[in-house]
Amino acid sequence: MDLSQNIQAVREKIAAAARAAGRDPGEVSLCAATKTQTDEAIRAAIAAGVEICGENRVQELTAHLEANAYAGADVHFIGHLQTNKVRQVVGRVSLIHSVDSDRLLRAIAAQADKLGIVQDILLEVNIAGEESKGGVSPADLPALAELARSLGGVRLRGLMAIPPVSTVSGENRKYFSQMRNLFVDIMKKISDNYPVMDSLSMGMSADYEDAIAEGATLVRVGTALFGPRPPMGTAR
Ligand SMILES: *Cc1c(COP(=O)(O)O)cnc(C)c1O
Q: Which one, of 140, 210, 149, lies nearest residue 175 by Cα?
């Protein structure tokens, strides 16, 4: 496993997928999903050109921040966020991808107000209607987006989705396409005086090329960069 070769290969595939869709490759950013990775692996990824690290767990985020492991890169929070952990995330990451309830949104905005900052966020959509997953339903999305716009402490930058794990190429394309439609819809609804909706976060190792074909501007890739992860809960 060669990290910098993997990064290069993923970058080339991102660019090729963008061009194949008639898009400018510069429109698509790579967010390296760093869950379970060590400080050293994160530093090596940044040295090899990774510009955004996406962290899932507050505990890992905090540890890597303390170790200054993200130096030279932007940090995003991409995992499920509990309201009581908002203080450990707001102002420490440049984008939170996973906002999916009124309560969480208000907590993030309140903490941002307290810090005197504006926190960039995405709203996570449960696009496949999966019981086990976070994310707002497409039906409840417009109201949550309105609320986001009304709160001074947050700036809504777009949407995020985690469709089911795909095993067959093309399987998730319908979800990516639905996400793109929702994104365009929401942009129209709240676009007045609100020109910053520019991010559609979707696509992981197994399906980022399909996501790019459907309009993703941010792909979150872990395994294809770092190799297989140890099972959850095992020591890092
Ligand atoms: C782990 C993770 C990814 C990356 O998954 P891979 O399949 O390893 O590329 C992307 N997004 C989120 C929210 C994740 O938790």
A: 210
pTM of the model: 0.96
Q: Whose CA is nearest to atom 11 of ligand 1?
A: 220
Q: Residue 234: its pLDDT value, please?
A: 53
For the chain, give the percent of residues with pLDDT over 70. 96
Residue 188 has pLDDT above 90, yes or no: no
DSSP structure class, residue 73: S
Give the residue, out of 50, 53, 55, 78, with the most ligand 1 atoms within 8 A of its beta carbon, to mutate for a pocket test: 78
Q: Is 236 a residue whose pLDDT tops 50?
A: no
Fold annotation for 3-226: TIM Barrel (3.20.20)
- The pLDDT tens digits of the residues spanning 102-125 come to 999 999 999 999 999 999 999 999
Q: List the structure tokens of 37.
A: 């990775």
Q: What residue spans define the domains of the chain? A: 3-226
- Own/partner contacts of 23-27, CB < 8 Å, gap of 24 or more, are 23/212, 27/217
CA atoms of 201 and 162, how far apart (whole Å): 9
- Ligand 1 pocket mutation, candidates 159, 162, 220, criterion most atoms within 8 A of CB: 220
Instruction: Note the pLDDT tens digit of each residue in 199-233.
Output: 999 999 999 999 999 999 999 999 999 999 877 65
String of DSSP letters for 168-182:
STTTTHHHHHHHHHH
Annotate 77-115 with b (16+ C-beta within 10 A) or e (fewer): bbbbbeeebbbbbbbbbebbbbbbbeebbbbbbbbbbee
